[in-house]
Amino acid sequence: MTVLQALLAFSLAAGLLTLTPGLDTALVLRTAAVEGPKRAGLAAVGIITGCLVWGAAVALGLGALLAASKLAFTVLKWAGAAYLVWLGLNLILKPRSAFDLAAGAPSAQGDFAWMRRGLLTNLLNPKVGVFYISFLPQFLPAGVAAAPFIFLLAAIHAALGLAWSACLIGATRPIAGALRKTSVVRWLDRLTGGVFLGFGVRLALERR
């Protein structure tokens, strides 16, 4: 896999992950609807900052390990592929029938409290860390320095998240309405699950 292929493949997978509604989406939509676009924007900045912190931690920690050990790369590759297959199958076989916006309705006071809320929501979610640890290294091309490239992938994911958050804030009511439809939520879950399943199988078979 070349650098360009890795970036394109990651951008596709990360884009679908960004569009699939979760706690971050709920927080931004709920804040935009109740508190206004300014506070929703601050919450989104907090979430994106959290992604970059996770990305830096994974890049520094795993970058050194992967550069030093071929065995570590192999173990992580298989573990990550298994995780992606499991995640994909769950999304395909057990898609959600509803997306609860109330799940992202915290109580906070002051504008910058919302940025702190977004940051903590992201940093205190262990699923983000597990996903980054298993997902980002799978797109590392041979012969490329691990740490900078992994952080670049995290930065791409953060940029996609920021763009999607802007769309959510700009079109809060129609997007929130669409995400309340069972068919939309199920379609997004199954589409994302199919992509993750495909990546998991391909990455398991790929040699470094």
Features:
single chain, about 210 residues, mainly alpha, 9 helices, globular
Question: How would you describe this protein?
Answer:
This protein has one domain (3-99, 109-137, 145-205). It is 79% helix and 0% strand. It has nine helices and no strands. The chain has helices at residues 3-19, 23-35, 37-68, 70-93, 111-123, 126-135, 146-170, 172-178, 182-205. Helix 2 runs antiparallel to helix 5 (111-123). The termini are close together. The mean pLDDT is 79.
Amino-to-carboxy terminus distance = 9 Å
* Strands, count: 0
Based on secondary structure, the structural category is mainly alpha
Query: What percentage of residues falls in helices of 4 or more residues?
Result: over 70%
The residue ranges in which pLDDT falls below 50 over 5 or more consecutive positions are none
Taken from the alpha-carbon principal axes, the silhouette is globular
Which series of helices and strands comes N to C? HHHHHHHHH
User: What is the number of helical segments per DSSP (H or I, 4+ residues)?
Assistant: 9
Give the total of domains.
1
Biggest sheet layout: none
Rg = 17 Å
The average pLDDT value, as a whole number, equals: 79
Name the beta content range.
under 5%
